[in-house]
Amino acid sequence: xxxxxxxxxxxxxxxxxxxxxxxxxxxxxxxxxxxxxxxxxxxxxxxxxxxxxxxxxxxxxxxxxxxxxxxxxxxxxxxxxxxxxxxxxxxxxxxxxxxxxxxxxxxxxxxxxxxxxxxxxxxxxxxxxxxxxxxxxxxxxxxxxxxxxxxxxxxxxxxxxxxxxxxxxxxxxxxxxxxxxxxxxxxxxxxxxxxxxxxxxxxxxxxxxxxxxxx
Length: 215
What we know:
Layout: E1 2-14, E2 30-34, H1 39-53, E3 57-61, H2 68-76, E4 83-87, H3 89-97, H4 104-107, E5 108-123, H5 132-141, E6 147-150, H6 156-168, E7 173-176, H7 180-189, E8 194-198, E9 210-211
Parallel strand pairs: 2-3, 2-4, 6-7, 6-8
Antiparallel strand pairs: 1-4, 1-5, 5-8, 5-9
């Protein structure tokens, strides 16, 4: 199911107070920190950096905390442009939900908007629904008995799941995971029934989960 719910993915750098030798940048490997966002995009972008600059790009995935863990690491890094942070909407959501040791506006410099990605509602094949209408009807007939996964409290999938619940007027249970990968594994195993997830690379879909579509 495709709705007009999009995942903005940006790259930030801590401080970005580059030294006078900035014309020689980069002179050593660059680290890209990734929190709850899709690391596949970071790897694609990192490879482009390597191809263009001839320097290795290290993808450092630090899931958990809705992006707080990776953002704190980036904020504490030297402001020399060698530590980048790839963020999603989860970072701005969590800045409102919880107190953090960093300020996204004060401590980071935006570099680029990388991608806008649609969200896909995936369900386990055992769920007896073959369209979004059937899924909503099933959830209304069984309030509180269906569940959906998210990659963490305050993440985009969590917000998308709550939007779906409110718009469809259904009672579904939120199951929290420490990242999208374990949530997807449990979806395929049937441990959870739904997962509203960003789909930045549309061709990369599991054959063991299906995407619900409107008729």
